Amino acid sequence: MNKKFVNKMINLAYNSKMEHAKILVVGAGGIGCELLKTLVMVGIDNITVIDIDTIDKSNLNRQFLFRPEHVGRPKAEVAVSTLKELRPSLNVTGIQANITNYGNDFFQNFAIVLNALDNLEARRYVNRLCVSTKIPMIDAGTQGKLGQVTVHVPHITACYECEPKPTPKTYPVCTIRSTPSKPIHCIVWAKYLYEALFGLRDPDNILSDLQKKAEGFSDLGKELFNLLFKEELPEEAKKIEISIENIVGSQINEDKIGSLQEYAAGFIYAVENLKSREPKPFDKDDQLAIQFVGAASNLRAANFKIEQLNLFKTKEIAGNIIPAVATTNAMAAGLQVIEALKILRNKNEPKNVWISEHASDSKIIVSGNMPPPMPKCYTCSVGSVKVKLNFNTFTLGDLVSKILKNELSMQNPTLNLENGSILYESGEGLDEEDEERYAKNYKMTLNELKLADGVRVSCDNFSTDFTIKLIISHDENQELYEIVGEIVENEENHKENGENQNELKRKSDNSDERECKKLKIVEDIEN
Ligand SMILES: Nc1ncnc2c1ncn2[C@@H]1O[C@H](COP(=O)(O)OP(=O)(O)OP(=O)(O)O)[C@@H](O)[C@H]1O
Ligand SMILES: [Zn+2]
């Protein structure tokens, strides 16, 4: 037992007796169901669980708080009613909502927060709220037979964001559009095509030009087929030599690799059905969307002499699924509860724990000490972040969307200059005049806003009580931006030339493939 740690913990105001401590569980999926059950089994009786989703048939094999008759109902609500059947005296509340709609007022009610989430964005959000309300958070994630449980005690141990997470894989737009060489390139292309035609129809979609063309087609399936796989192809691609005239649409097989005829029929079938339905974002469990992506990606693979994949495999890649293993979820949730009890009882030092597939020293569960907070962390340290960008081309809107929202995960930032004037604010309750002024600022470049090289902008995220100071310098050669990532607590120590600043250095993509922007394909590995 580490005395120092325990003493520090005592200084934090943890609530009342362990059994009655209020616990927040975020997510009631594979890990969440196990977690809720185990919490109740060890005697915890005051739980709030929040989950955004409803129960899908495919959840039933491992999310055992749910039964076939619950399909379509909110996970949080059903989880609570099943737990109450187990022990009617429980004080459990289920909320169907996105956790990102809840702020400090909500979080500060809890003694501890347990994450059972499946995405980075929500995890980061919860982390920020826990840091700002100083509430310990325990995160759990599994991937097949691998799992990990990490404990984050604000300002005492590393927060969830102290270690930069692997950035999503990126593919150059030009590879996807004209020079695919792997099945994944074709699948990514087909997913964009789906979104452009039948999904989000985002004007920034790399295939949005095809959306416009398709609007003029009278026989969408056949004309699209001819355009995509026979006519408008780059030099190096082979044209598909089958006539579409007599092909009748039909579904493609899940397990077998089909012939080109079969894929053509699958393509026609999917297009005919999708065109008459309301636009809907891509979802791996959407049978029609998968038929479309499976057929289109294999036809494109044929164009470029790339290996074909069966629908099952395509679905796995398109939905980026690693099959969930119920036992790993149960182990991770169990370990999460053990670590939570250590914190609530305030006796033993919690640990980070990993579940591995192969035993080392005959152990498949290995634990390690929690690392200390990183002085350069965006989230849990106080300081400034240096950014380089071109003042002549970069707009305030770029700063808000690309840097503050995308890179630093702020939801609704307010930007203040050191002289106290507000550059930008968003959200409800603004008067008309301000709203107009901010909308105007949003479109202006930093130069047009008359910001000086080296300007300091304080960025506050209203809902999370999270502030970052940006020090922005002008760099004529930047095509996008570069976050130097230096958190400067003491100005004098800061080295202007950028050497030794590699730790959090994330370069914008202007080095290798200047002519083509890269796509971020989120292959979120955490479950
Ligand atoms: N922002 C969020 N707010 C609330 N709940 C969330 C949020 N993001 C994810 N979740 C929930 O976290 C849970 C994660 O569980 P899990 O990984 O088992 O996902 P699933 O969707 O149930 O299963 P699968 O993705 O394997 O089909 C899901 O129930 C999901 O609805
Ligand atoms: Zn941190």
UniProtKB/TrEMBL annotation:
GO terms for molecular function: ATP binding; metal ion binding; SUMO activating enzyme activity. Residues 250-315 form the Ubiquitin-activating enzyme SCCH domain. Zn(2+) binds at residues 159, 162, 377, 380. Residues 15-352 form the THIF-type NAD/FAD binding fold domain. Residues 387-478 form the Ubiquitin/SUMO-activating enzyme ubiquitin-like domain. Pathway: Protein modification; protein sumoylation. Heterodimer. Belongs to the ubiquitin-activating E1 family. This is SUMO-activating enzyme subunit. It comes from Blepharisma stoltei.
